[in-house]
């Protein structure tokens, strides 16, 4: 098979890019290892920045997002008895939308056939070849039958564990990593949220987050040691822990109910440079990971995809190679700022096992500063709502 752009991975990054290219009349094929049901079973964060909402709107695929998404004008930082509201709408003139990232993937997936975007599911042993040339190709097998796609560009949207990043030679690569000494234990339940806005809480027993998917579905997290097993956390134990960590006001508004999903996710900050090598570009989790504090994962993937689509349109429609050459630097400039914000918010809101009284005093001082400074709140708000692309 021959195409202009071969996209590896049908997560939100790959599907969004596929749709953007198709909308511009650029030929592309998406190759995915898993089946749709598996992909839609992955529960991911749920806060969308303007960039993500805007791209869905540009594609005309925001019908459900507009109908079901909850527009959020602010969020809260809690520390013990204290609750600091960050008035995002007033401070920035912008809002975020709470809408499950899995729903974005579903909307993109469902629209693929009608938009003529080919997505090959169940592709095994995907491998990349000749990425340093102008004629790279991808091989894979479906039902044991070998296949090959020849393209002008290959775009790696295959997440943290995919083969794309590994195709870039170690001699030109640089990796930056920080692994955190805890994970987030998440619970999803069909109960109304305890608060109309998200609450990120730093309690002496640890971190907690009250989030939601809709007016009737809540998503909560507590941080736990990496040695903890999800089997040891009954629903009741999680609700009890949330009630303590989120504080009395949130606890009073909390409705308990049976979990419909429960899992522990480790926290990691990771950046791979460069994000382009020859005819291969990386987008999303294949190039970087952020800890979930601030929910930047999908939004960063969306800004990568925006830059990559722009570059590919310039290349194919105007024979202009400059944006392809500049893709890595442009994408990384925004990636690093999101990495910084996710790391700062993680450090501010979690009790690290290695921290002593000094580090705790720094957290308290920073929260004091934030609560009394419009400048500090504006800085948090503009990062939360999403920096410009
Ligand atoms: N061959 C083909 N596809 C692969 C391979 C492979 N060898 N390895 C991984 N993939 C697929 C995965 O099955 C997955 O569907 O690539 C896709 C990557 O999707 P995500 O992991 O969701 O990564 P990305 O699209 O970059 O998502 C960015 O969105 O939902 C959020 O939190 C999520 O931060 C993440 C962000
Ligand atoms: C979520 O709703 O799952 C969520 C929200 C905000 C975050 C992380 C996760 O920072």
Report on the architecture of this protein:
This protein has 389 residues and is of the alpha+beta class. The chain has two domains: 5-72 and 96-176 and 268-346, FAD/NAD(P)-binding domain; 180-267 and 351-385, D-Amino Acid Oxidase, Chain A, domain 2, CATH 3.30.9. The chain is 38% helix and 28% strand. It contains twelve helices and 20 strands. The protein has helices at 12-23, 36-40, 50-58, 63-68, 88-92, 101-115, 235-246, 248-253, 297-318, 322-349, 357-372, 374-385; strands at 5-8, 28-31, 47-48, 70-72, 75-79, 82-86, 96-98, 119-120, 124-129, 137-142, 145-150, 153-156, 174-189, 199-203, 206-212, 218-224, 259-273, 276-277, 280-282, 288-289. The strands form four sheets. The protein has an eight-stranded mixed β-sheet with strand order 6-5-14-15-16-13-17-20. A six-stranded mixed β-sheet has the order 8-2-1-12-19-18. Strands 3-7-4 form a three-stranded antiparallel β-sheet. Helix 1 (12-23) runs parallel beside helix 6. It is globular, with a radius of gyration of 21 Å. The two termini are 34 Å apart. The structure holds adenosine-5-diphosphoribose and P-hydroxybenzoic acid. P-hydroxybenzoic acid binds at residues 45-47, 198, 209, 211, 219, 292-295.
Helix and strand layout, with pairings?
Blueprint (H helix, E strand, L loop, with lengths): L4 E4 L3 H12 L4 E4 L4 H5 L6 E2 L1 H9 L4 H6 L1 E3 L2 E5 L2 E5 L1 H5 L3 E3 L2 H15 L3 E2 L3 E6 L7 E6 L2 E6 L2 E4 L17 E16 L9 E5 L2 E7 L5 E7 L10 H12 L1 H6 L5 E15 L2 E2 L2 E3 L5 E2 L7 H22 L3 H28 L7 H16 L1 H12 L4
Helix pairs in contact: 1-6, 1-9, 9-10, 11-12
């Amino acid at each position: 098979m021959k195409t202009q752009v071969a996209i590896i991975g049908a997560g939100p990054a790959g599907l969004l890019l596929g749709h953007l290219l198709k909308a511009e009349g650029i030929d592309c094929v998406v190759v995915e290892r898993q089946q749709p049901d598996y992909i839609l079973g992955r529960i991911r964060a749920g806060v969308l920045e303007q960039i993500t909402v805007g791209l869905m709107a540009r594609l005309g695929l925001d019908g459900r997002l507009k109908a079901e998404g909850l527009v959020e004008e602010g969020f809260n930082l809690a520390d013990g008895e204290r609750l600091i509201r960050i008035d995002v709408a007033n401070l920035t003139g912008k809002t975020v939308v709470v809408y499950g990232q899995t729903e974005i993937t579903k909307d993109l997936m469902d629209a693929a056939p009608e938009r003529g975007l080919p997505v090959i599911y169940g592709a095994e042993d995907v491998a990349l070849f000749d990425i340093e040339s102008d004629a790279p190709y991808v091989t894979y097998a479906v039902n044991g039958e070998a296949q090959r796609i020849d393209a002008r560009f290959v775009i790696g949207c295959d997440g943290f564990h995919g083969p794309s990043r590994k195709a870039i030679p170690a001699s030109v690569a640089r990796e930056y990593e920080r692994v955190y000494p805890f994970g987030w234990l998440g619970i999803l339940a069909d109960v109304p949220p305890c608060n109309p806005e998200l609450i990120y809480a730093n309690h002496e027993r640890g971190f907690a987050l009250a989030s939601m998917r809709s007016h009737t579905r809540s998503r909560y997290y507590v941080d736990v040691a990496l040695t903890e097993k999800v089997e040891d956390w009954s629903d009741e134990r999680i609700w009890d822990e949330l009630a303590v960590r989120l504080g009395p006001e949130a606890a009073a508004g909390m409705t308990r109910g049976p979990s419909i999903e429960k899992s522990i996710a480790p926290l990691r900050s990771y950046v791979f440079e460069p994000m382009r090598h020859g005819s291969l570009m990386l987008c999303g989790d294949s190039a970087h990971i952020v800890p979930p504090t601030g929910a930047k994962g999908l939004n960063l993937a969306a800004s990568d995809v925006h830059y990559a689509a722009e570059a590919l349109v310039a290349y194919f429609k105007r024979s202009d190679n400059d944006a392809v050459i500049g893709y890595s630097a442009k994408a990384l400039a925004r990636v690093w700022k999101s990495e910084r914000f996710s790391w700062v918010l993680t450090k501010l809101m979690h009790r690290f096992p290695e921290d002593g009284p000094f580090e705790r005093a720094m957290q308290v001082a920073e929260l004091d500063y934030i609560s009394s400074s419009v400048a500090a709140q504006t800085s948090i708000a503009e990062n939360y709502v999403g920096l410009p692309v």
